[in-house]
Amino acid sequence: MHQVKLLLILIVLMAFSSSLFAQGNFNNSLHFTRNGKNYWYGSVNNGFESFTQVPISEIGCTECHGPTDAAGNAYNEQNPYSGPGCGDCHPNSNPQAELSEAQCLGCHSRQNTEKATLKYSDVHTDAEGDTVLVCWDCHTSNDMHGPSGDALNSMLEPGGIEADCENCHDPAEHPAGKDPHGGKLHCTTCHTQTVIACYNCHFESQVQTKIKRHKQPIHDYVILANRDKDNKVYTMTFQSLTNAGDAFVAFAPFYSHTITDAGRGCADCHNNSVVTEYNSTGEIKFATWNSEDSTLSWKKGVVPMPADYTRSFKMDFITYTGDVNNPMSGADKRWESIGKDTWDGHQMFFATPLTKIQMVKIGFDTTLTAIGDRENLEVLSKYSLLQNYPNPFNPSTTIEFMIPKSAEITIKVFDVAGAEVRTIVAGEQYAAGNHQLTFDASGFASGIYFYKLDAPGFTQTRKMFLLR
After folding, report:
1. What pTM does this model have?
2. CATH 2.60.40.1930 residue ranges in the chain?
3. d(Cα 268, Cα 362) in Å, to the nearest integer?
4. CA dihedral sign of residues 207, 213, 215, 217
5. pLDDT number for residue 323
6. How many other C-beta atoms can be found within 10 angstroms of the C-beta atom of residue 373?
7. 96-110, 125-139, 194-208 — which one is most confidently predicted on average?
8. Cβ distance 410 to 426 under 8 Å?
9. What residue ranges in 151-292 does DSSP mark as E strands?
């Protein structure tokens, strides 16, 4: 009997300790540190702070919270928000208390917009009975309480989000003949109904009145790019901002909770209207401001992000002309163009645009622009060092090369005087095919540089321009 009691006590202690252990990394979690916000905004990563010169501590972003604590108590002068803690998610800060998905959506506003405002369906949450999923069915304790190692800067970093389709769905069970891409596309590419964005945040409202003001949520589109995490084509969205005439946009992979059972068809991506526009004009005008009636229109459907997006991807930037003290309203038409459809600064983290080879496969005519030679894209019968992109760049750029057979490759960077300034690859073995590398020129001075590919019996050099 004594042994049975000891065993029961041990089981209870193990269960309790595992619960505590699951939360033991909370101080490293993004829910606690709020690092993700300044990772994008801060000037260290050439974020919007580089233009505004306003630190994140002055705009209230890291102090953001939902309207109530997890027990339903409203935050006010008598019950002020005291900072990240268990009570944000757990009623009365009790880890054993029942969670509420509404509390998750109180902070994760894009997901709330998808579900509550735009009324999109999702096969995981709209099912019936025991098959209905909630946030914590897919997101692990590490996702919510933090990784066991060092604190991360973004949920998009490796280890930031463990939830993924393949945790439940075996790719090998994909219906036969339904995946002509051989696993190169992530599930979201075909099964996401839409991503969303809050178009054109008015930074002055945030600074002066702490009102998060944007023109409107936009949806019914997906941007496609290559996700760094698994090098698969993935859905992407953006955040656009303006301040005092400066325009900025940040692009990143985005998982939308608008998953449908039926996937897209070939015509949704191949030679679609966006590809046709690019082939006709050399550009993609993603968003257009209509000054006559103060409305915004934008591309619907699949928007493949081209390799030369820094040149070809256009979107009208707008600013709010009303009183910054006015409450946020989607019906407010006091907006106007700032006269730009190109950005003054931008970021694309944790993803890269489609390669030139990928562009050709879905119908882009890359001979219309300066981004490549179609003959080199369509056949891998010879070595080829392609032009870097973006170019000019700051501070990093992608260098792409193709080789017809497995070989040892060396790639070096030289300044205009011919002095070697960086070895990117030193005699490493690469398989036949198309390859991409990132060159980070942080710490380098503005100017012209040359990058050189050496392979057995082959040498090629190209010029690139670092512009700070």
Report:
1. 0.75
2. 379-466
3. 10
4. positive
5. 96
6. 13
7. 194-208
8. yes
9. 195-199, 201-202, 216-227, 232-243, 246-253, 284-290
CB-count burial class (<10 Å; 0-12, 13-18, 19+) for 353: buried
CA angle 109, 148, 227 (to 5 degrees): 55
**pLDDT at position 47 over 60:** yes
- The residue behind tokens 């309480």 is 145
Name the β-bridge partners of 223. 236, 303
Q: Are 258 and 121 in contact (CB under 8 A)?
A: yes
- Rounded Cα distance, 307 and 287, in Å: 19
Phi-psi group of 266: left, alpha or beta (phi > 0 → left; psi -120 to 50 → alpha; rest → beta): alpha
CB 246 within 8 A of CB 201: no
Neighbours of 244 (CB within 10 A): 10
User: What are the angstrom distances between the C-alpha of 84 and each of 62, 81, 211, 402, 453?
Assistant: 10, 8, 21, 49, 50
H-assigned helices in 24-43: 30-33, 35-41
pLDDT at 111 over 70: yes
Q: What is the pLDDT of residues 330-389, one digit of tens each?
A: 889 999 999 999 999 999 999 999 998 899 889 998 765 544 444 444 444 578 888 888
Region 69-95: mean pLDDT is: 90
Please say whether the beta carbons of 242 and 319 come within 8 A. Answer: yes
pLDDT 10s digits, 297-314: 999 999 999 999 999 999
Asked if residue 60 has pLDDT above 90, the reply is: no
Q: Give domain 379-466's CATH number out of 1.20.1530.20, 3.90.550.10, 2.60.40.1930, 3.10.129.10.
A: 2.60.40.1930
Q: Where are the alpha helices (DSSP H) in 231-390?
A: 273-281, 309-312, 356-361, 374-378
Alpha-carbon span 195 to 301, nearest angstrom: 10
Which tokens belong to 358?
A: 């990928």
Question: Using CA atoms, how far apart are residues 298 and 128, in angstroms rounded to an integer?
Answer: 35
231 touches 183 (CB < 8 A) = no
Distance CA 308, CA 293 (A): 32
Q: Using the predicted structure, report yes or no on whether residue 282 has a pLDDT greater than 50.
A: yes
CA-CA-CA-CA torsion for 238, 243, 246, 252, nearest 10 degrees? Answer: -10
For the chain, give the percent of residues with pLDDT over 90. Answer: 60
